[in-house]
């Protein structure tokens, strides 16, 4: 490379970094850890094959994905980034549960303060309240978990 330092990959693999090196654009010599971790998890020759099969404009994205997955795999050797995904999915469903409970409480408090009227007398404000809060979704949730009984004894 005419005096230039080899890329992080060629340095680690102890080979000459040519000007058409597949790794050089994505693994600069000033960040050796980036290639080291990808090499450890996927193996340099697999990474090289994967990059060569991709059009050049997709390679940078593929490299950041490989680096992300390799880091996740080192943190959690069993699940890798699936571990992080399922942790976040659990958080989402817990929060959806809390939201449904809070919506049930709101509905309950409203019903305590405003006695239920026959459907024909429900005014526009009530209709828009039910629309905004997607009553059908709320009722579907309620039938499976008795939230209303919990908050409206
Ligand atoms: Zn190189």
TrEMBL record:
GO CC term (a single one): nucleus
Ranges annotated as spanning the membrane: none
InterPro entries associated with the record: LOB
Family matches, as Pfam families: LOB
GO terms of biological process kind: regulation of DNA-templated transcription
Domain LOB: residue ranges: 5-106
Family of the protein in this entry: Belongs to the LOB domain-containing protein family.
Protein name, per record: LOB domain-containing protein
Organism whose genome encodes this protein: Glycine max
